[in-house]
Amino acid sequence: MGEQSGPSGDISGRRRGGRRRKPRNGRKTALTVAGWTTAAVVVLGGTGLGYVYFRLDGNLKSVDINGALGDDRPENVDNGSMDILVLGSDSRAGANGEYGGGDEGARADTAMIVHVYQGRKKASVVSIPRDTLVTRPECPTEDGGTDPGGERRMFNESYSVGGPACAVKTVEKMSGIRMDHYLEVDFSGFKNLIDELGGVEVTTEKAIKDEDSHLDLQAGTHQLNGEQALGLVRTRHAVGDGGDLGRIQLQQAFIKALITQVNEIGILTNPKKLFDLAETATSSLTTDSELKKAKDLASFALGLKGIDSKNMNMVTLPVAYDVIDRNRVVPLPKETQLVWDALLADRPIPAEATKDSAGDKGEAGSVVKDD
Questions:
Q1: Does residue 23 lie within any of the structural domains?
Q2: How far apart are CA 331 and CA 327, in angstroms?
Q3: Residue 251: exposed, middle, or buried by beta-carbon count in 10 A (0-12, 13-18, 19+)?
């Protein structure tokens, strides 16, 4: 198992607690992706596209995670479960620059470990806050060099430093769990998919107004288009303490609404709608090399179709505010280990793992109604 930093960022984890972080200005953050990806693979999984697979293959981008990491990985536990690292990438160039503040470069601002239990009927999703301080392992860089890593490094920097392979390596060192697959999606892909679906219905318990994310919703039921959905999963300042933890709770509620809608609409009876969705999905996905063909992705998706929102347990990695830097959080060692142990053993995450976490508290989780 990888060592976890304590709430002060030290490895011993002897101190716990910390100050509430203040809302941060400036750089806007990325989308939620687990719901988008689940929707995309559900669409592909039921298609029987056959002759158009070749066309869709040209849309997909892939990364050889196995080749990049070699043998420096946890043991592959064969208990019928599956673990997937899902990232939302925020490349601040091109179409995504509209949402990322105009900066160049790519970041992974949303990260979720999706654990699919044996039988493929239930899943647990563990959101990792982008500002979590971790011990980052040594990683190869895209220019052929090596980044030495180190303690108290912000989690989402692993992607900036070494791309998908470094992100996977960081998660595996943190958790001791081997990731079976890697999926990544970007801002514009998320927005386009929601529009292709015809929007997603959500009910807000109170008004949400955030000028930074261009979101202005009254309390009530809304059919969100792509722009509004993107605003919802990006918003920070309108809920909670203005930090990443409240936004994650909004993301989790939206993911459940998205998955419910994908399972309910009759897209499989409309070939054109189906193909348009498949085109949108594959054009915005980056996968590990084992899923680089649309046919492989569809086969993978078939194993996820039995999971609905009611059988998906969504939590945030147990964290506390860092006592040195209140704009950062650090894993709670004991509670985090409970999460990793449960997933390794293919068991439900125990309630005591998150009861003292800053990540699953606050008002944000009640803003969007969870059916």
A1: no
A2: 14
A3: buried
Q: What is the tens place of the pLDDT at every residue in 5-35?
A: 444 444 333 333 443 444 333 333 233 334 4
How many angstroms separate the CA atoms of 292 and 182, rounded? 11
Of 38-42, 115-119, 208-212, 268-272, the least confident: 38-42
Rg over alpha carbons for the chain, rounded to the nearest Å, is 19
Give the angle subtended at the CA of 132 by the CAs of 129 and 133, to the nearest 5°.
170
Domains identified in the chain, total number: 1
Secondary structure letter of residue 117 according to DSSP = P
pLDDT of residue 193 exceeding 50, the answer is yes
Rounded Cα distance between 47 and 28, Å, is 36
Residues 6+ apart with CB under 8 A from 285: 37, 40, 59, 60, 61, 183, 184, 185, 189, 297
Nearest alpha carbon to residue 262 among 62, 88, 35: 35
Q: At what angle do helices 34-45 and 187-197 cross, to 10 degrees?
A: 50
CATH of the domain at 216: 3.40.630.190
Mean pLDDT of the chain: 78
**Band of the pLDDT at 317, cuts 50, 70, 90?**
very high
Do 154 and 248 contact (CB within 8 A), yes or no?
Answer: no
How long a stretch of residues is the chain?
A: 371
Interacting residues of 97 by C-beta distance below 8 A, sequence separation 6+: none
Residues 167, 112 contacting (CB under 8 angstroms): no
Report the DSSP pairing between strands 133-136 and 150-154: antiparallel
8 is a domain residue: no
**Could you list the residue range(s) of the whole structural domain that residue 138 is in?**
34-366
- pTM, two decimal places: 0.81
